[in-house]
């Protein structure tokens, strides 16, 4: 059942020889929606993106826009823009020439206005005549964004656009990206391996594991119920506990665990500060901004991290689980 | 400036950083430029200058009058016009037809590609006399293309020029094309560019330096083509090259030859200036893939047109004469036979002084020597020319240096050969009777090709890679080894193949220098085909086929010498 | 980065400057060359002042053309007999070789030359490139082939350049094979003759000389005008004409008449056949003679003279037909059976003396080019 508007992907499969990179993926995207495609490297997320763009031949499946099949349409007529990881700016054109590349059919005045508008939008007003080589990494990516938005793509595919940049710049540019995409009401798929980036930029997040979508939903839904241990682990739930192990650590008895496992989030294990909880040996303490990260050994032998307001003097620490920061996940089997 | 901005280096690195480039390296770079230049000066500039000077000065005092006569005659201008027309048309046709070939054979993956790449190189080394006979057989009254009526016409010469130079374009341009980052084109496509526009606006600017480089080479080859123009054009097309040959070897009219040589130098220099200007306009660090991921598997939709064009050129222009050659080498008056091949083990009656296989061994030894010389000098020249100094003056002199090594291709082998006679005639350079002159002369001809093969690859290295290496503590030597080195190795296979092939097929200079008792294969072929009788003719064709096979083999091996490409994801 | 480039560039500039210096030097090197040459001749003069004791060394350099061939056995025998180490140099065709000898007379390419033909003989002899040597006269000299009275050139071999015809072609057309130069200009033989360009080919020049000899200096251009009107085809060289144009060769070209050698029919005999497929028209022949000579300034005059004697020896004379496709000057040598049958010499070759050819060659070629090629 294809939605009337937006992107519809059905059974999309990409193969490289005998390797299946993308395995029969279904995906729907409403107009104006931003979907983050999250996955570890090698999970097939870039192949999926390139498959949708038409840059990679499909072994099977269909891609539709507004209910219309686009598989036979050549890349340049699809109206699907791609922003590449390293920008792929054309070194033989200046900034303005790069941004104008996709709108060369517009009359000169309109074209110049569009270039100005977009450079303005990405915070690089007045950069038209600058050489590509004179740009910093962040500026180059902003030009790349402006360039890919200039022709009003009906769908923009962003392939790890910020992964080459430093963390502070990345956090800043994620904001710029989201606000720009929203301001231009652009439908977008944003491929990344960075969970924070995905959650910050997207309306919905899809987690890709081994070429299949393992979980899709709003950032908070996906975070709260990762649906599988693999997704939970990938999202940053550091420790998985069997029902018995969870109960040992103080899992409330009113929350029955029927063959499910407990995925402990970054704040899932907390020091009790009193006699409650289980005493565990402290292995290591590291000062962080505003808290101390403490590594402990859990009763069943696994190591886990938890946060404390200050350093612990004793060799042991009493801890318990905070169900609000844990997720209950059905086992794969 | 870089040092000021750089983070403090560990103590071990600091001293070196402050001192700048150690004198050893300064001396090294100077030597790297000086060595090939000295070679060029001794074995090219000096002989040519001496012969031209003899023409101007002579023993009878200044003869500028004779030179003025030559330059003032209508015949000279007609010859110049013919030369330019043929060179421009030959270059245009070779480039236009070669570009689809470069794409298909280097940017597209399909079974049998290595073989196809090797086969297109074969014509490049075939002796012109044999090619002439093959083409006459194809275009002549009883040939398969007789209906075109092109025998002894301009189109016939152009066809033959394409036949020889197609490989130069395909290899030079393809070598770069196969390693272009495909995402640049993809970026253009996702911005709405049709395949044609993406080619025009992204691929073409990226491969332009290689095209300019190939065009310059082909222009020089066409402008100085000797045998092929006479064979294909009958006697109606005289070029500057054939005229120099005639004035020098047959009339010893040195003033006239000097005037023509100057004319030739001017034309060649102008062509090189245009090329240098074109490539510097397009020159920039390209994003190259170290692996072959710029290639994609063959699809009819995307590659159909290039396939059709390349197949048409391959069959009609390259394969037809070569097939004619093979078929004729297997026939005698009675029918099919291998007797011509059997004759290669003999002296073919008593026409030859040595069996053909001995000539083959001579050829291989000479080719190996020539390849070594050309590679050693070519690597030095490429390394020097690929530097990117800050000063405009320094950059310009590097371009001049680059162009200097192209000059030998555009200057008549006769001028160089006769120049040798009056310069290299005294100790310590009394080399006129030395066998080493053959590989040296061939190396000079092959050197520009070696540089053309290596330079684009070195130039395409992002200078930041060298900077990155430097900031990682690598000295000049380590940067050369670790950054330039791997790229250099990739270019060297192709360069060695070209050098070897050039040497194997070289006839012009060799014919002046070869000893009757130590002939190379082209010399033997020339001798065989210069004698009447079926046995000689058949053996000449069989030897040509052998030479062609050998060349194909060399080029196949050259492809293999390239280090294993990184496996694709 | 930048310092590397800058220094490299500076080095390059320095070296370019060095090159221009070098070429500047070479510009002025011509007089130096002759000075040294003069010096060396003087030295030699003193050495050879002891009479009948020509200069001698262990090596001998033989300058020859690219058609030269001699068996290894013969060479080995000469080396054993004389104790000399022989090196051949062959710097191009006969014309190139002759002109190179003139160019390098101050510093000769070798000690002895073989392969100067009668069309270049007077140029080489007149340029002062050779020293005289009177070889012992052969007991049976085939013809009077000597080029000059000064003993500068010793005849070694000779042959005839004649129009060759494809017998089968004429038999099929039921047309008589032409016999004379005039026949070739006749309407019946339109578009049948291929001739080499005399500017670039030695048989071409020989045929031009034949037409001058037959028609006179006043008449030969008119004759060529008739040939042109009759569709003569001009090819660059012998290979192009014989292999490319001639129907009687293995190249199977379109034309049944070509300028080649009187010996060529001997190589166009099918296996087991009693007749050649082609025939030389013996009334159209020009006689080519090849000479040897001692090069002036040779470091080994003794060896040079020995080599000329050797070229006249029985074993070399006997090798000449098969190795070089020419007739030996020694008439007592047994010729190959095929030659006796299929390759007779012309009984009355068209004669032009070497001095006339030497004096007129360039103007003939120039006038011929203007008339025939336009």
TrEMBL record, chain A:
<protein>
    <recommendedName>
        <fullName>ABC-type quaternary amine transporter</fullName>
        <ecNumber>7.6.2.9</ecNumber>
    </recommendedName>
</protein>
<dbReference type="GO" id="GO:0016887">
    <property type="term" value="F:ATP hydrolysis activity"/>
</dbReference>
<dbReference type="Pfam" id="PF00005">
    <property type="entry name" value="ABC_tran"/>
</dbReference>
<dbReference type="InterPro" id="IPR017871">
    <property type="entry name" value="ABC_transporter-like_CS"/>
</dbReference>
<dbReference type="InterPro" id="IPR027417">
    <property type="entry name" value="P-loop_NTPase"/>
</dbReference>
<keyword id="KW-0378">Hydrolase</keyword>
<feature type="domain" description="ABC transporter">
    <location>
        <begin position="7"/>
        <end position="235"/>
    </location>
</feature>
<dbReference type="GO" id="GO:0015418">
    <property type="term" value="F:ABC-type quaternary ammonium compound transporting activity"/>
</dbReference>
<dbReference type="InterPro" id="IPR003439">
    <property type="entry name" value="ABC_transporter-like_ATP-bd"/>
</dbReference>
<dbReference type="InterPro" id="IPR003593">
    <property type="entry name" value="AAA+_ATPase"/>
</dbReference>
<dbReference type="InterPro" id="IPR050093">
    <property type="entry name" value="ABC_SmlMolc_Importer"/>
</dbReference>
<keyword id="KW-0813">Transport</keyword>
<keyword id="KW-0067">ATP-binding</keyword>
<keyword id="KW-0547">Nucleotide-binding</keyword>
<dbReference type="GO" id="GO:0005524">
    <property type="term" value="F:ATP binding"/>
</dbReference>
UniProtKB/TrEMBL annotation, chain B:
<dbReference type="GO" id="GO:0005886">
    <property type="term" value="C:plasma membrane"/>
</dbReference>
<feature type="transmembrane region" description="Helical">
    <location>
        <begin position="84"/>
        <end position="106"/>
    </location>
</feature>
<feature type="transmembrane region" description="Helical">
    <location>
        <begin position="23"/>
        <end position="46"/>
    </location>
</feature>
<dbReference type="InterPro" id="IPR000515">
    <property type="entry name" value="MetI-like"/>
</dbReference>
<feature type="transmembrane region" description="Helical">
    <location>
        <begin position="487"/>
        <end position="505"/>
    </location>
</feature>
<protein>
    <submittedName>
        <fullName>Binding-protein-dependent transport systems inner membrane component</fullName>
    </submittedName>
</protein>
<feature type="transmembrane region" description="Helical">
    <location>
        <begin position="305"/>
        <end position="327"/>
    </location>
</feature>
<feature type="transmembrane region" description="Helical">
    <location>
        <begin position="405"/>
        <end position="424"/>
    </location>
</feature>
<keyword id="KW-0812">Transmembrane</keyword>
<feature type="transmembrane region" description="Helical">
    <location>
        <begin position="436"/>
        <end position="458"/>
    </location>
</feature>
<feature type="transmembrane region" description="Helical">
    <location>
        <begin position="118"/>
        <end position="139"/>
    </location>
</feature>
<feature type="transmembrane region" description="Helical">
    <location>
        <begin position="210"/>
        <end position="237"/>
    </location>
</feature>
<feature type="transmembrane region" description="Helical">
    <location>
        <begin position="257"/>
        <end position="279"/>
    </location>
</feature>
<feature type="domain" description="ABC transmembrane type-1">
    <location>
        <begin position="80"/>
        <end position="275"/>
    </location>
</feature>
<comment type="similarity">
    <text>Belongs to the binding-protein-dependent transport system permease family.</text>
</comment>
TrEMBL record, chain C:
<keyword id="KW-0732">Signal</keyword>
<dbReference type="GO" id="GO:0030288">
    <property type="term" value="C:outer membrane-bounded periplasmic space"/>
</dbReference>
<dbReference type="GO" id="GO:0015888">
    <property type="term" value="P:thiamine transport"/>
</dbReference>
<feature type="region of interest" description="Disordered">
    <location>
        <begin position="30"/>
        <end position="58"/>
    </location>
</feature>
<dbReference type="InterPro" id="IPR005948">
    <property type="entry name" value="ThiB-like"/>
</dbReference>
<feature type="signal peptide">
    <location>
        <begin position="1"/>
        <end position="29"/>
    </location>
</feature>
<dbReference type="GO" id="GO:0030975">
    <property type="term" value="F:thiamine binding"/>
</dbReference>
<protein>
    <submittedName>
        <fullName>ABC transporter periplasmic binding protein, thiB subfamily</fullName>
    </submittedName>
</protein>
<dbReference type="GO" id="GO:0030976">
    <property type="term" value="F:thiamine pyrophosphate binding"/>
</dbReference>
<feature type="compositionally biased region" description="Low complexity">
    <location>
        <begin position="30"/>
        <end position="52"/>
    </location>
</feature>
<dbReference type="Pfam" id="PF13343">
    <property type="entry name" value="SBP_bac_6"/>
</dbReference>
């Amino acid at each position: 059942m294809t939605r009337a508007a937006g992107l519809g992907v059905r059974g999309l499969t990409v193969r490289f020889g005998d390797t299946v990179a993308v395995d029969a993926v279904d995906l729907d995207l409403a107009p104006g929606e931003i979907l983050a495609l999250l996955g570890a490297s090698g999970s097939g997320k870039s192949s999926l993106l390139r498959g949708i763009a038409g840059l990679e031949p499909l072994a099977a499946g269909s891609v539709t826009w507004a209910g219309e099949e686009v598989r036979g349409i050549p890349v340049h007529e699809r109206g699907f823009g791609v922003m590449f990881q390293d920008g792929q700016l054309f070194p033989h054109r200046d900034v303005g020439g790069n941004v104008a590349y996709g709108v060369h059919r517009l009359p000169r005045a309109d074209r110049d206005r569009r270039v100005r508008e977009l450079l303005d939008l990405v915070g690089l007003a007045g950069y038209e005549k600058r050489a590509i080589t004179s740009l910093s990494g962040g500026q180059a990516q902003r030009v790349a964004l402006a360039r890919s938005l200039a022709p009003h793509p009906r769908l923009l595919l962003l392939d790890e656009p910020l992964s080459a940049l430093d963390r502070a710049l990345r956090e800043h540019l994620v904001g710029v990206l989201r606000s720009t995409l929203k301001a231009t009401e652009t439908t977008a798929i944003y491929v990344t391996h960075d969970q924070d980036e995905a959650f910050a930029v997207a309306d919905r997040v899809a987690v890709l594991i081994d070429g299949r979508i393992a979980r899709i939903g709003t950032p908070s839904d996906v975070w709260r119920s990762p649906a599988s241990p693999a997704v939970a682990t990938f999202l940053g739930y550091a420790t998985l506990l069997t029902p018995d192990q969870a109960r040992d650590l103080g899992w409330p008895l009113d929350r029955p665990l029927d063959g499910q496992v407990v995925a402990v989030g970054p704040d899932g294990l907390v020091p009790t500060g009193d006699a409650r909880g289980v005493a565990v040996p402290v292995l290591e303490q590291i000062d962080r901004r505003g808290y101390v990260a403490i590594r402990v050994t859990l009763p069943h032998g696994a190591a886990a991290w938890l946060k404390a307001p200050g350093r612990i003097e004793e060799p042991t620490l009493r801890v318990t689980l905070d169900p609000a920061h844990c997720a209950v996940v059905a086992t794969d089997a | 400036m870089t040092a000021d901005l750089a983070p403090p280096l560990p103590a071990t690195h600091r001293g070196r950083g402050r001192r700048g480039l150690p004198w050893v390296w300064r001396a090294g770079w100077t030597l790297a430029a000086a060595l090939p230049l000295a070679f060029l000066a001794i074995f090219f500039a000096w002989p040519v200058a001496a012969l031209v000077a003899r023409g101007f000065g002579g023993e009878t005092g200044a003869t500028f009058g004779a030179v003025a006569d030559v330059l003032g005659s209508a015949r000279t201008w007609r010859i110049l016009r013919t030369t330019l027309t043929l060179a421009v048309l030959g270059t245009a046709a070779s480039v236009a037809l070669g570009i689809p070939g470069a794409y298909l054979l280097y940017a597209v993956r399909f079974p049998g590609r290595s073989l196809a790449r090797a086969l297109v190189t074969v014509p490049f080394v075939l002796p012109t006399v044999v090619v002439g006979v093959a083409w006459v057989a194809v275009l002549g009254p009883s040939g398969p293309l007789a209906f075109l009526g092109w025998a002894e016409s301009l189109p016939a010469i152009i066809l033959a020029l394409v036949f020889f130079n197609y490989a130069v374009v395909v290899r030079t341009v393809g070598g770069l094309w196969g390693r272009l980052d495909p995402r640049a084109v993809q970026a253009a496509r996702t911005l709405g560019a049709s395949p044609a526009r993406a080619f025009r606006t992204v691929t073409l600017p990226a491969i332009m330096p290689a095209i300019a480089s190939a065009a310059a080479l082909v222009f020089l080859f066409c402008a100085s083509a000797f045998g092929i123009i006479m064979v294909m054009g009958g006697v109606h097309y005289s070029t500057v090259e054939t005229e120099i040959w005639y004035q020098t070897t047959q009339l010893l009219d040195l003033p006239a030859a000097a005037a023509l040589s100057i004319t030739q130098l001017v034309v060649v220099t102008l062509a090189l200036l245009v090329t240098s200007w074109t490539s510097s306009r397009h020159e920039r660090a390209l994003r190259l893939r170290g692996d072959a991921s710029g290639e994609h598997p063959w699809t009819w939709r995307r590659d159909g047109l290039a396939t059709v064009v390349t197949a048409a050129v391959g069959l009609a222009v390259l394969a037809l004469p070569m097939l004619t050659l093979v078929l004729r080498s297997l026939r005698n008056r009675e029918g099919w036979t291998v007797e011509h091949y059997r004759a290669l083990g003999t002296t073919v009656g008593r026409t030859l002084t040595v069996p053909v296989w001995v000539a083959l061994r001579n050829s291989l030894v000479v080719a190996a020597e020539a390849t070594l010389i050309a590679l050693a000098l070519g690597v030095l020249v490429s390394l020097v020319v690929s530097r990117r100094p800050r000063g405009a003056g320094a950059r310009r002199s590097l371009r001049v240096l680059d162009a200097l090594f192209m000059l030998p291709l555009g200057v008549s082998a006769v001028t160089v050969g006769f120049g040798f006679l009056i310069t290299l005639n005294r100790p310590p350079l009394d080399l006129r009777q030395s066998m080493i002159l053959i590989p040296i002369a061939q190396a000079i001809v092959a050197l520009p090709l070696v540089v053309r093969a290596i330079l684009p690859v070195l130039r395409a290295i992002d200078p930041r890679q060298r900077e990155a290496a430097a900031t990682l503590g690598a000295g000049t030597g380590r940067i050369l080894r670790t950054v330039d080195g791997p790229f250099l190795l990739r270019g060297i296979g192709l360069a060695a193949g070209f050098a070897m092939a050039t040497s194997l097929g070289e006839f012009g200079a060799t014919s002046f220098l070869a000893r009757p008792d130590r002939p190379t294969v082209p010399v033997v072929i020339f001798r065989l085909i210069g004698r009447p009788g079926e046995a000689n003719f058949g053996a000449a064709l069989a030897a040509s086929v052998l030479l062609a096979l050998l060349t194909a083999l060399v080029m196949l091996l050259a492809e293999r010498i390239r280090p294993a490409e990184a496996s694709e994801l | 980065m930048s310092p590397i480039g800058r220094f490299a560039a500076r080095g390059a500039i320095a070296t370019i400057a060095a090159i221009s210096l070098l070429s500047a030097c070479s510009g002025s090197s011509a007089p130096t060359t002759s000075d040294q040459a003069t010096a060396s001749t003087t030295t030699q003069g003193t050495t050879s002042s002891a009479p009948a004791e020509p200069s001698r060394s262990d090596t001998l350099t033989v300058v020859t053309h690219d058609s030269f061939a001699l068996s290894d056995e013969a060479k080995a025998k000469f080396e054993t007999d004389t104790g000399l180490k022989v090196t051949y140099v062959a710097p191009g065709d006969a014309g190139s070789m002759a002109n190179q000898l003139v160019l390098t007379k101050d510093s000769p390419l070798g000690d002895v030359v073989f392969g100067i033909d009668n069309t270049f003989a007077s140029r080489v002899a007149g340029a002062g490139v050779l020293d005289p040597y009177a070889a012992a006269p052969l007991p049976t000299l085939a013809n009077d082939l000597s080029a000059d009275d000064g003993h500068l050139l010793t005849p070694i071999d000779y042959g005839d350049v004649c129009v060759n015809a494809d017998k089968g072609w004429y038999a099929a057309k039921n047309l008589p094979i032409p016999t004379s130069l005039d026949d070739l200009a006749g309407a019946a033989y339109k578009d049948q003759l291929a001739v080499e360009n005399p500017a670039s080919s030695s048989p071409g020049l020989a045929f031009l000389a034949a037409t001058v000899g037959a028609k006179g200096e006043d008449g030969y251009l008119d004759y060529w005008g008739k040939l042109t009107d009759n569709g003569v085809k001009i090819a660059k060289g012998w290979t192009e004409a014989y292999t490319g144009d001639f129907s009687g060769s293995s190249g199977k070209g379109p034309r049944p008449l070509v300028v080649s050698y009187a010996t060529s029919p001997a190589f166009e005999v099918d296996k087991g056949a009693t007749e050649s497929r082609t025939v030389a028209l013996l009334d159209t022949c020009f006689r080519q003679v090849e000479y040897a000579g001692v090069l002036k300034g040779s470091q080994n005059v003794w060896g040079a003279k020995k080599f000329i004697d050797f070229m006249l020896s029985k074993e070399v004379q006997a090798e000449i037909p098969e190795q070089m496709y020419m007739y030996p000057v020694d008439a007592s040598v047994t010729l190959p059976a095929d030659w006796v049958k299929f390759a007779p010499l012309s009984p009355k070759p068209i004669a032009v003396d070497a001095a006339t050819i030497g004096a007129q060659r360039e103007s003939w070629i120039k006038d011929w080019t203007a008339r025939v090629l336009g």
